[in-house]
């Protein structure tokens, strides 16, 4: 799922090899070394197959969400469904403010952000991505 070059169109870089992915996943499982920052990662599955993931980085009462769906499974509502579930959990159970950083031309992610109640702001992060908030 993560080996497709097109997944990197808006994020840059290229697919990682197995060793790089293993190291990344080990860091994710270990969590952030800063005790004030908490990482949550969910793998999305259709039957037994991994089709994507949602991530939430929590600092104080702020949550930054990110989502990725493999190209084969895009345009089926999986990102909206998964991001909405995480956003609901964060808002109801934890009362977090939610943000997402989205490439200005990534229309599909704009739609997901709007679906979960986020709105584009006039602020950009260090990578030139628009900060969405809600």
CATH architecture assignment name: 3-Layer(aba) Sandwich
Low-confidence stretches: none
**Percent in strands:** 25-35%
Helix content: 25-40%
Strand count, sense and closure of the main sheet? 6 strands, mixed
| CATH secondary-structure class | Alpha Beta
Question: How would you sum up the global shape?
Answer: globular
Number of H/I helices: 3
Spatial extent as radius of gyration? 15 Å
> From N to C, what is the helix and strand string?
HEEEHEHEE
CATH topology: the name is: Aminopeptidase
Question: Describe it for me?
Answer:
This protein has 134 residues and is α+β, with helices and mostly antiparallel strands. The protein has one domain (5-133): Aminopeptidase. Helices cover 29% and strands 34% of the residues. The protein is globular and about 35 Å long. The longest helix is centred in the middle third of the chain and has 17 residues, at 78-94. A six-stranded mixed sheet has the order 1-2-3-4-6-5, with helices on one face. A hairpin with a 2-residue loop joins strand 1 and strand 2. The protein has three helices and six strands. Helix 2 (78-94) packs parallel to helix 3 (107-115).
Care to give the gist of this entry?
The chain is an alpha+beta fold. The protein is 29% helix and 34% strand. It starts with 17 loop residues before the first helix and ends with a strand.
């Amino acid at each position: 799922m993560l080996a497709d070059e097109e997944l990197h169109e808006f994020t840059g870089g290229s697919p990682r090899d197995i060793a790089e992915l293993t190291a990344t996943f080990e860091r994710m499982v270990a969590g952030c070394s800063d005790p004030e920052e908490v990482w949550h990662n969910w793998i999305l599955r259709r039957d037994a197959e991994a089709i994507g993931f949602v991530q939430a980085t929590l600092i104080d009462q702020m949550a930054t969400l990110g989502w990725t769906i493999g190209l084969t499974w895009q345009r089926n509502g999986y990102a909206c469904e998964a991001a909405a579930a995480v956003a609901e959990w964060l808002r109801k159970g934890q009362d977090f403010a939610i943000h997402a950083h989205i490439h200005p031309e990534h229309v599909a992610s704009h739609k997901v952000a709007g679906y979960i109640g986020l709105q584009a702001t006039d602020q950009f992060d260090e990578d030139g991505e628009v900060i969405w908030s809600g």
